[in-house]
Structure formats: C-alpha cells, structure tokens
Design brief:
The structure holds two protein chains of two kinds. By secondary structure, chain A is an alpha+beta fold. In chain A, 35% of the residues lie in helices and 27% in strands. Chain A has six helices and eleven strands. In chain A, α3 (49-62) crosses α4 (108-123) and α3 (49-62) packs across α6 (197-211). Chain A is globular. By secondary structure, chain B is an all-alpha fold. In chain B, α1 packs across α3. The chains are: A alpha+beta, B mainly alpha.
C-alpha cells in the first residue's frame, strides 16, 4: 500500500503544477447551530463537524467546476457530480481514500450517515470498488491529530485537494475587540493547468462564508 | 477475585473499545488521562464508542458531557451514575 501511495504522490509532484492557497475560517456560528441540532437528537443521528465541513466544501465545489473533475490526456474534464474522496488513516498504518458520492446533493444528516459508513468500511477493510475509484476531488482532515494547517499533494487525475486543520478557540477580532471564537484553517492545493489563483481564491472564500453562518449549510 | 460493583461496566467499556481499536493494550492505558489521545480515537471513533455503550448499557451521553467522559475512570463513573444497566 505504501508503494502505491508513494508512486501516486511522486507522479503527482512530477506532473501537476501545484499552487496553494489558505485561509482561516470562523466556524463558531455554524458549530453553535450544530450543537443545537445535536442536542435534541439520539446518538446515532448526531452530526460531526467533519460532515458540516464536507457539505460546505461540496456546495462550494459545485460552483467551482475548474476544481472538480479529472485531468486526463492533456485535458481537464469537469464533472457534473461532486464525489468527495475523504482521506482516512488506517489503525495499522497506511491510508485509504473512500468516496462520499453526491456530497453536494445529500442533506446534512444523510451526508453524515454516508461519511460514517464510508469511514467504517474503509477501517474494516470492506470497501467496494465504487468507494475508491471515482472521486472528483479529495478532502484531507488532519485537525483531529492536532495539525493546524495541511497543504497536501493532489491525487492524480484529480485537480484539487482541500485541507482541514484543527478546530480550536483562537483570538479573533469582533467589533474592534479581541475575543475567543472557534476557527479552522482551510487550504486548497490545486492544479494550475486547470485553474488559477482567482478561481481558487473564490472557492476558498465561499467555504468560510457558509461556515460563518449561524445555520447549518 | 475482587468484588468490584463497576466490573460489568468496565467490561462493557473494554469490549466496546476493543471493537474500535483491536490492537489496543487496555492494561497500559492510564485510567485518569485522555482516552482519545492514548488510543488515537478520532471524533467518529468516539461517537461509535458512545453508540455501542448506549446499546449495551442504555446510557446516552449528551454532547455537552463529552468532556466529562474522556478518561476510562471518568467514563465508567459517569455510566454508573446515569443508570447503566450492565
């Protein structure tokens, strides 16, 4: 498995001209909405921040076609669907990237269920071929390991890798005062053959806009 | 064999943990320190743990109490004081 990952990553860095953008997103308002949502719900129906972030990312990708698709035979082919690969570490070592299909079309509870299901299958070695093959962009979430920012390597033939860091209370400025609020660092690694900084920046601005609302995306 | 009234709850917790982290050495876990850190449990693992414990013991831990149950001893005590049926 390590050899396969190594080959893909080496190829990616050889062939894909990466550019990188990052921003700090205020997530306190949407986390507050999430906590209210979960308070009334049984355990099996609770939604985690990862699902919230994934939905905001999927919706923003739908509006950024140059970041969602495949670069094959010298050409970029945008995809009409948003199938998000989610990087997950295996307990014994190694990585798998199961897919959450139609992440932009699932309501938040359904997205959470699909994500839980995909991660459970990946971790128990029960992935199906449709789980791995057809994602249109990938998200890597290293926040739970304490990493504040991640700038990753795009998985060819995709053209974008979105990184999520650690959600934590940090100093922010509100009405001219420094207050504590939860933020997360969001990053984009993108293929400069398919998009440029302006497109990447618009995408990267759209995600925090959704997360800064006191409502679920 | 000691008469530990919490033994059935401890066993239920151990079973649920091993289902999520089969390689874990529970004997080496510090019962007073973060369970999530020591066993590398992410938010999905932790949620799955709580779901398994609810199924087994009938206690649902609200999100607001997550901070009170991230150590083995604290988790067992919380389950016991919230009517765990073991």
């Amino acid at each position: 498995m390590r050899a396969a990952i190594a080959a893909a990553m080496a190829r990616s860095k050889r062939e894909i001209p990466h550019y990188y953008l990052g921003c700090d997103a205020l997530v306190e308002p949407s986390l507050g909405a999430l906590e209210a949502f979960n308070a009334g719900r049984p355990l099996a129906e609770r939604v985690l921040f990862a699902a919230l972030a994934l939905r905001a990312i999927a919706l923003a990708l739908r509006e950024a076609p140059e970041l969602n698709g495949r670069f094959v035979d010298g050409r970029f082919e945008p995809s009409a669907n948003v199938h998000l690969g989610v990087v997950t570490a295996l307990r014994g070592g190694g990585l798998l990237v199961p897919t959450v299909h139609d992440a932009d079309r699932l309501a938040l509870p359904e997205l959470m269920a699909a994500l839980r299901d995909a991660l459970a299958r990946a971790r128990s070695g029960q992935l199906r071929s449709s789980d791995l093959a057809d994602s249109t962009a990938t998200v890597t979430n290293l926040g739970e390991l304490g990493t504040d920012m991640v700038y990753g390597v795009i998985y060819p033939p995709q053209v974008a890798l979105i990184g999520l860091g650690r959600v934590a209370a940090r100093p922010v400025v509100r009405d001219g005062q420094v207050v504590a609020a939860r933020t997360v660092h969001l990053s984009l690694a993108a293929d400069h053959r398919a998009s440029d900084g302006l497109i990447g920046a618009r995408f990267l601005a759209a995600v925090p806009q959704r997360l800064a609302r006191a409502a679920l995306p | 064999m000691t008469d530990d009234p919490l033994a059935p709850i401890r066993q239920a917790v151990a079973d649920a943990l091993l289902a999520i982290a089969p390689e874990a050495d529970l004997g080496a876990v510090d019962a007073g320190r973060s369970l999530r850190e020591q066993l590398d449990l992410d938010s999905f693992d932790f949620l799955n743990l709580l779901i398994a414990l609810q199924q087994r013991l009938g206690v649902a831990v609200p999100e607001a109490d997550y901070g009170r149950v991230d150590a083995l001893d604290a988790l067992v005590a919380y389950l016991a004081s919230h009517g765990a049926r073991a």
